[in-house]
Each structure stands twice: as structure tokens, then as C-alpha cells.
Design a protein that fits this description.
This protein has 134 residues and is an all-alpha fold. It is built from two helices and no strands. It is rod-shaped, with a radius of gyration of 33 Å.
Length: 134
Amino acid sequence: MMKEYNMLKQAVAAQSQEGRARLQALIRQREADKTEAAVQERELSLHLATKDEAARDISQQEGKAQQLTADLEKRGRERKQLEEEVARMERQGREAEERLLEVRRLMKDLEEQQRAYKQEKKRSQQEEKMAAAL
């Protein structure tokens, strides 16, 4: 039981750490996307030479902005999903700890029963010896 608990606890901890790492990577990627969007916006303002060119650039930038917005929304959903997964893994860890405590209580009860049985057996054997001696 203890070995199973430790293995489960290690697996939950590893999954939780992996989820946090993925969450941090998503956050870093989101920040990079924001920086990229700001750079693209600045480039747009520098390259507006004519109305036609400006209109074409705006159209392209809007497409990129829409894509970035979609990417940010996707990353937001992924982040929420990872947070839920981390919460689930933490909950499983707590449940495993509760099961371990219950197993420990059961083992303690069994040890007490075994001790009581041995004492009763010893007392019974002593009574039999006394009876046989009479």
C-alpha cells in the first residue's frame, strides 16, 4: 500500500510539474506573441508610403492580428485546461494521502488485534498449563 501510494504520489507530482511547465511555456509564448504583435504594428506605421500600400499593409496586418488573437484565445483555453488538470492532479494527490492515512489506521488496528490475540493465546496456554498441573 505504501509503495503504491508513493508511486501514485510521484506520478501526480511529475504530472503536476509537467503541467506547470507547460503552463509557463504557454505564458512565455503569449508574451512573445504580444511582443511580436507590437513589433508588427510598429513596422506597419513605418511602411505606410501610399494609400494603396497602406491599405494593403493594413489588410495583411489585420489578418495577422486576427491570427494572433485566435492564437491567444487558443492559448488561453489551453492554460485554463492545464490549470484544471493541475487542480485535478492535486486533488488526486490529496485523495491518495487520505487513502494512505486510512491504510495506516487499518494497519494499526490489525497490529492491535494481533497483539490482543497473542496475549489471549498466551493467557489461554498458561491456564491450560495450570489446569494440567492440577
